[in-house]
Amino acid sequence: MEEGCEFRQWDDLLPDALGLIFRNLSLQEVLTVVPRVCKSWGRAVKGPYCWQEIDIEEWSKNRCPENLDRMLRLLIPRSGGSLRKLCVSGLSDKSSFEFIANNAKSLQTLRLPKCEISDSIVEQVAGTFSNITFLDVSYCIKIGARALEAIGKHCKCLTGLRRTMHPLEVIDKLSQDDEALVIATTMHKLKQLEIAYMLVGTLSIMEILKNCRQLELLDVRGCWNVNLDENLVKKFHKLKVIGPLVVDCYDKNGWDNCSDYSGSSGYIPWDFVAGDIDDDFDDDEMSDGYWEDDWEDDQRVEDVEMWFYDDLNAVDAGYDWPQSP
Predict the structure, then answer these.
(1) 214-231: per-residue pLDDT in tens?
(2) Would strands 109-111 and 240-242 be described as parallel, antiparallel, or unpaired?
(3) How far apart are CA 172 and CA 79, in angstroms?
(4) What is the CA radius of gyration of the chain?
(5) 78 alpha-carbon distance from chain centroid
(6) Are residues 180 and 199 in contact, defined by beta-carbon separation less than 8 angstroms?
(7) Which of 171, 170, 168 is nearest to 319 (CA)?
């Protein structure tokens, strides 16, 4: 950079700094716009600093399983084993979940709402999630006490669990007290527990309070069979109990956006002016196949672009229901 230059070139920034900046862009912009700005930005997008936290929860809604799996297999390897947070919804492919498990050695936060994983699959791979501190398995109707027990036994660092359900999804169940009791017996380090709309009773919740002594937040909104004595709750000085009374909000898409405690972080829209492109980066390089040669994930930028237009007019596969907290 020339001495006395008033502005520093953005392409001179270190990759880790660029990674922090690009994290505020939408997934589509990071994958299809940023790589075309300049070489250094393209290299940064392919490096691990952009992908230590992967949040495709919003993007993955309504996506076909094939494209969802392809996106995971494109992004996760880019983290270089440093993936700390992964948010994805509607996961239905067993191989996709196993792929996540095989790359989970550094994973601390895992959000898998509305995924169709089963108890047996969770039991097989729970041991690979030993470093997980926060887990969201809300609306995962195919798992139950067996899966939660496997998670509790293997994920000893777990301090936050979100297991929010919807009344229509559990209407055919007699009880989910077995899940609550498993939580009480295997997840003693929990500080945050959200089990809104689960079919649990007072005795099960009392077991959780008795065994999870570090609990700071308990969300039992919509758990109508729970009746906690206020004087008893006051004995737990650090504990905040929400519910069972529900003050709900409505979203036509049937996806949960109302919890203040979920720890989710979506992409923030961000407009930027890139400034001057690299002086040595010209149209000739593009005509020489620069992008094809530099895209080392076996996916060309143009191919990835198409993933964002796939299922564009698809109707939400979820129910038209009020939002859970």
Answers:
(1) 999 999 999 999 998 888
(2) unpaired
(3) 41
(4) 22
(5) 17
(6) no
(7) 168
Residue 315 has pLDDT above 50, yes or no: no
Q: What are the tokens at 146?
A: 């067996």
Residue 120's alpha-carbon distances to 57, 72, 124, 145, 147, in angstroms, are 24, 22, 6, 11, 7
Which residues are paired to 192 by β-bridges?
160, 217
d(CA 128, CA 151): 10
pLDDT of residue 292: 45
C-alpha to C-alpha distance for 43 and 281, rounded to whole angstroms: 14
Indicate the helix (H) or strand (E) that contains 72: helix 65-75
Distance between CA atoms of residues 141 and 190, nearest Å: 22
- Taken in order of first residue, the domains within the chain and their CATH numbers are 54-268 (3.80.10.10)
Rounded CA separation 153/268 (Å):
36
Nearest residue to 181 (alpha-carbon basis) of 154, 159, 209, 162? 209
Highest mean pLDDT among 4-8, 11-15, 87-91: 87-91
CB 15 within 8 A of CB 34: no
Q: How far apart are the first and last CA of the chain?
A: 51
DSSP labels for 280-319? Answer: T--HHHHHTTHHHHH-TTS--HHHHHHHTTTTTTPPP-S-
Q: For strands 85-87 and 109-111, give the pairing.
A: parallel
